[in-house]
Amino acid sequence: MTLAAEILARATRAGLTITTAESCTGGMIAGALTDLPGSSAIFERGLVTYSNAAKSELLGVSPDTLAAHGAVSEEVAREMADGARRAARADIALSVTGIAGPGGSEHKPEGRVCFGLNYGTEVLVKTVDFGALGRDAVRHAARDHGLKLILSALP
User: Fold this and answer.
1) pLDDT at residue 1 is higher than 90
2) CA Rg value for the chain
């Protein structure tokens, strides 16, 4: 069973809904979930908020947070997940923001991805450094990690 199929089965059993707010993955997590028949029972909506303006306008990420920490930060990932859950009125919201590459810097290297998971009364933020694997590999690794995080929030 794929990660997405397991999410669909467990969320359906629990009667829970899911939303995503994605930047560097460009909707890949939403795509993995909605590839499955029956996903409309659990998937509320997905937002691709690639630009800082989109993060602010659609998710309510504070321009001050963006200025202080940059788009690739746990602070922004938290605000993205909070905003997505609020906007979708979903039970679980996952956010992803990172540097898929090429590029990066000493402080924010290629392959760094920040995740936010908002569910129940919990908000988990996590940074994963996948390394300079190349754009495609980083995006796929972030997609899979994001799906595992959603799965971890399900009963």
Assistant:
1) no
2) 14
DSSP state of 154: -
pLDDT digits (tens, 9 = 90+) for 136-153: 999 999 999 999 999 999
Residue 3 structure tokens? 């990660």
Sign of CA dihedral 54, 144, 102, 110: positive
Cβ atoms of residues 106 and 91 within 8 Å = no
Our CA angle for 49, 52, 53, nearest 5°, is 85
Q: What three-state secondary structure class fits 92?
A: strand
What average pLDDT is seen over the chain? Answer: 97
Distance CA(123)–CA(82), nearest Å, equals 8
> What is the pLDDT, as a whole number, of residue 107?
84
